[in-house]
């Protein structure tokens, strides 16, 4: 159709009629003059609309899923963050429980030895001042820490303070090759000097070359003059190997320290020495060794008649008895006894 003036007028007229019909239909509701036509159109085109709707529903759902995917991604991200936070909390709770146990053990040792201590946390580890094995703690001169103070934890001797700052201090660990401490053996009081060997057991040289030493023997610190750098009675470790003296004036043994130097966390600096030597009271209690009870033995002898007699002379059975036939055997025995009674009676009469 050509774009003429008549065609444009016709288009405007049709649009006006359409708006008029829509207005009449809306105002009339169910009583609208075009209601019948609308219902007829719905009957004809309804199935077509439903079919088209069914066809495009998956597409619509997909579009909705794409639209909601951002929200779901945000929710997953939130859940992942909450899960990570929960794991971190559980991890921190485990560490807190571990630190509580360490602190409790250290306080028990301090109480047993009557040591006045200042608690501290290991905040750094590494070589310092030319030493191989040192740690830094978060307590210093502001906390009363001084050079050459003993450092311990809930397991035993950790080391000694070498340098002190206002809020931190450096501790030389007992396993450092430049570390030496005087020791005393439990019970026998044999004296020696323990020297660190890094990750290997401590080397202890006893002053008595003929000292009787065996694996499992335990050592504590002997103590220093004026309790510096070492207070007495701090657990050092247990003997794991004894070298033969070979006639030497001294004897060398190897001691496994109680402290795990690669996992230090909570430590205590002894700021007040005990009034008297605690001796062996700080050492961990050893398990009580109980001798196994001997298994009781029962001696049974067989009599000529088949009776089984135990050590007390009690008859406990008969080898002629069949399993489960005790009642039958008793009955048979009773019958035999009854049968023998007349003979016995007859014998009695003849003797009379």
Structure description:
This is Cell shape-determining protein MreC. Residues 130-270 form the Rod shape-determining protein MreC beta-barrel core domain. Keywords: Cell shape. The protein has 352 residues and is an alpha+beta fold. The protein has a domain at 110-272: Thrombin, subunit H (Beta Barrel). Helix content is 37%, strand content 25%. It has three helices and 15 strands. A six-stranded antiparallel barrel has the order 1-2-5-4-3-12. It has a six-stranded antiparallel barrel with strand order 6-7-8-11-10-9. Strand 10 and strand 11 form a beta hairpin. The chain is flat and about 145 Å long. The model is unreliable at 326-352 (pLDDT under 50).
List keywords for this structure.
352 residues; alpha+beta; Thrombin, subunit H; six-stranded antiparallel beta barrel; six-stranded antiparallel β-barrel; 3 helices; 15 strands; 37% helix; 25% strand; disordered C terminus; Cell shape-determining protein MreC; Cell/Rod_1
């Amino acid at each position: 159709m050509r774009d003429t003036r008549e065609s444009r007028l016709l288009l405007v007229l049709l649009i006006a009629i359409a708006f008029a019909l829509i207005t009449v239909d809306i105002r009339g509701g169910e009583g609208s003059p075009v209601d019948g036509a609308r219902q007829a159109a719905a009957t004809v085109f309804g199935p077509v609309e439903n079919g088209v709707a069914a066809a495009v529903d998956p597409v619509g759902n997909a579009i909705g899923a794409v639209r909601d995917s951002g929200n779901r991604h945000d929710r997953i991200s939130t859940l992942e963050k909450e899960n990570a936070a929960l794991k971190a909390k559980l991890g921190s709770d485990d560490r807190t429980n571990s630190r509580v146990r360490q602190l409790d053990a250290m306080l028990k040792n301090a109480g047993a030895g009557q040591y006045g201590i200042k608690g501290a946390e290991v905040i750094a580890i590494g070589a310092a001042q030319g030493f191989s094995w040192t740690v830094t703690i978060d307590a210093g001169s502001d906390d009363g820490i001084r050079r050459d103070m003993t450092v311990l934890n809930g397991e035993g001797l950790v080391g000694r303070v070498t340098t002190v700052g206002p809020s931190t201090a450096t501790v030389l660990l007992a396993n450092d090759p430049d570390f030496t401490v005087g020791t005393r053996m439990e019970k026998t009081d044999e004296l020696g000097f323990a020297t660190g060997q890094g990750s290997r057991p401590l080397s202890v040289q006893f002053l008595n070359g003929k000292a009787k030493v065996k694996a499992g023997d335990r050592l504590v610190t002997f103590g220093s003059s004026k309790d510096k750098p070492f207070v007495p009675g701090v657990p050092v470790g247990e003997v794991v190997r004894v070298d033969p003296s070979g006639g030497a004036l001294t004897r060398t043994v190897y001691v496994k320290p109680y402290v795990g130097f690669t996992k230090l966390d909570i430590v205590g600096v002894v700021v007040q020495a005990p009034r008297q030597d605690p001796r062996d009271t700080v050492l961990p209690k050893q398990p009580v060794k109980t001798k196994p009870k001997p298994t009781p033995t029962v001696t049974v002898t067989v009599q000529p008649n088949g009776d089984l007699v135990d050590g007390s002379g009690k008859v406990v059975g008969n080898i002629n008895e069949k399993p489960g036939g005790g009642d039958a055997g008793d009955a048979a025995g009773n019958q035999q006894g009854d049968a023998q009674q007349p003979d016995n009676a007859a014998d009695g009469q003849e003797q009379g």
